Structures are given as structure tokens and as C-alpha cells.
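The protein record passed on below.

***
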Amino acid sequence: MAGDIIRKVVTLFWFRFKVQEPIAKYTWFNYRDKIVPSRMEGIWDDDDIDNIVVDICHFPLIADKSTNQIYTPAKIFHKHTKYIYKSYYNSIYELLENQE
């Protein structure tokens, strides 16, 4: 099964992009990038979109950058920013508290 997965990934990223006209590019989103619903797929509420960032991008965005045509949106797992900042501030507070 691992051999089939490797073969499909190589076929997709090495051969299929090069035979397509115009040539598509893939883009991986980084940790803590803001959510762009038109370029990403995931499960989130539209009401809270400003407080959500990328946690893991498990499939890249495939698009033609010259025409801005999206062939396949990125598939991501998200994280709420309020939890990121809360844990970040808690760790700083604990660090400062231990120095006293």
C-alpha cells in the first residue's frame, strides 16, 4: 500500500503538473496563516473566520497563479487564535513567575 501511495504522489506532483496547460503550481500553507475560505477547505464557522488560523495543511492548494484559477483548494486543519495566544501568554507568565 505504501508503494501505491508513493507512486500516486510522484505522478501527481512530478508529471501531471508539467503536462497541464497552463502549468499549475502548488502552495502549502504555513502554520498560523490566516484562513482564506476561497483557497482552503476545512470545517469552520463563517462567523468566527477572523479568529481561525491554519494548524496543519495536509494537501496543498493547486492553482494557476497567472489567471488565479483554483483547481484544487488546500485541505487544512484549523486552530482558534484565542487558544494559541492563551497558551503562549500562560507559558510567558510561568517563565516570569519562576524567575522571581
